[in-house]
Amino acid sequence: MIIGFDADDTLWHNEDGFQASQREFEALLAEWGDADTIEDRLFEIEMRNMPRYGYGVKAHTLSMIETAIAVSDGQANAALIAGIIDMGHALLDRPVELLDGVVEVLDELANLTLMLITKGDLYHQLARIDASGLKERFWQTEVVAHKDVATYRRVLGLHGVEPERFVMVGNSLPSDVLPVMALGGRAVHVPYHVTWSHEQHTGDHDAPVIESLSDLPALLTDWSIR
Amino acid sequence: MIIGFDADDTLWHNEDGFQASQREFEALLAEWGDADTIEDRLFEIEMRNMPRYGYGVKAHTLSMIETAIAVSDGQANAALIAGIIDMGHALLDRPVELLDGVVEVLDELANLTLMLITKGDLYHQLARIDASGLKERFWQTEVVAHKDVATYRRVLGLHGVEPERFVMVGNSLPSDVLPVMALGGRAVHVPYHVTWSHEQHTGDHDAPVIESLSDLPALLTDWSIR
Q1: Helix (H) or strand (E) holding B103
Q2: Residue B118 is inside which H or E element, if any?
């Protein structure tokens, strides 16, 4: 069996940084709208830019700048825009902070074959993987643009992994759980304490949900995988 | 034998669009400096941001915004910044324009195993590959963050290609030619009519240089590869 791990918000913190940055962004634009208005406008602009930009901090930064210009009706000045660029740099430079228990769980599963499959900006994701210190624990690490059925099929095929021999572990239902189950693999849902609006999903699924990655070894034992 | 192709400026035009955009950028900032001053400042800021941003249009757009704020000493207004964001969108939305003769050459080499190995922003490169209409001609397509020896070793290994059985074809000496030769593979240099300063290289090498991709089939025949 091969165990696949998502990275952002599964192995290390991510979304909390985006949300803190969003609060800062709302404060920066407070004279032109309340937090909800600014948040809605940013989300709308991010979704409109998604097909063009994809995911990641650079996309997010450009959408924040566009939002600042839009909500201020062109009044945002260079100092404010420079502040947004600095917020983007801070998100990119943020140290990798592992979730509690991650190292212990990976230690415990060291005799299994582990993959890391993460979605987003290629450069930033590779930098995060390097900075995590976890790279050598994984047989393969893959940065993908989308986590859909076609991508999992391609990535698993590339490494000769049959879906029946694959378990994906992650915090996102639409990205980590549903496509892998659709392909005939197994999945484990480990919710993170906050979820980006774009990744929120309320559909039914019968994947097990665990509260923390620390519960994964026992679950794999139940499944006779270890 | 496996033939690898670079994409930007080897199969389709790319750098000419960046250079046209740069002329537009210089015109936009003309009141704060001459073209050379602005070009130098942009290049300096792009290189400083490179480890953080990597390659691609989003990175370039953010660096243009930062440059505009710097050279204007904070006088660049929201309309100007919005214009830069639009320039980025135009670069991302630009249709894929194949270089002359590309389709005919790929037709002629259709009985060989072809790979596409391109460097840059994951989302934009995948969109370009899709839009090119060429994807099905390649056995494998890979988007990588860097084209260095380690990356070629990883990608070739992943697909079971020995360097001795690999020829890389591309317009960049440091990205397409030198690392593949260092690995024991062969390379063919097809210069594009303009080269980004960052990819300029004056080192020695003994890879054949061809004027156009249309000369590739004859060269491969000389090498008894087809």
Answers
A1: helix B102-108
A2: strand B113-119
Please, what is the angle between helix B35-53 and helix B15-28, to 10°?
Answer: 120
Q: Distance (Å, rounded) from C-alpha A196 to C-alpha B22? A: 35
- ipTM higher than 0.95? no
A224 vs A4, A5, A209, CA distance in Å? Answer: 17, 19, 18
What lies within 8 Å, CB to CB, of A158 at 6+ separation is B158
Q: How far apart are CA B202 and CA B93, in angstroms?
A: 33
What is the DSSP secondary-structure string of B147-202? -SHHHHHHHHHHTT--GGGEEEEES-IIIIIHHHHHTT-EEEE---SS--GGG---
Would you tell me the crossing angle of helices A78-93 and A15-28 to the nearest 10 degrees?
170
pLDDT in tens, chain A (226 residues): 999 999 999 999 999 999 999 999 999 999 999 999 999 999 999 999 999 999 999 999 999 999 999 999 999 999 999 999 999 999 999 999 999 999 999 999 999 999 999 999 999 999 999 999 999 999 999 999 999 999 999 999 999 999 999 999 999 999 999 999 999 999 999 999 877 777 777 677 889 999 999 999 999 999 999 8
B-chain CB neighbours of A156 within 8 Å are none
Nearest by CB to A122, from B54, B89, B158: name it.
B54
Question: What's B62's DSSP letter?
Answer: H
* Pairs across A and B, CB distance < 8 A: 93
Instruction: Please name the residue that has the structure tokens 């924040």.
Output: A64
Mutate to test the interface with B, among A63, A121, A142, A147 (most CBs of B within 10 A): A121
Query: Residue A161 and residue A154: Cα distance in Å, rounded?
Result: 10
CB B68 within 8 A of CB B81: yes
CA distance A32 to A25: 12
Going along chain B from its start, the domains and CATH numbers come out as: 2-12+96-222 (3.40.50.1000), 15-93 (1.10.150.240)
pLDDT at B204 over 90: no
Residues facing B77 on adjacent strands:
none
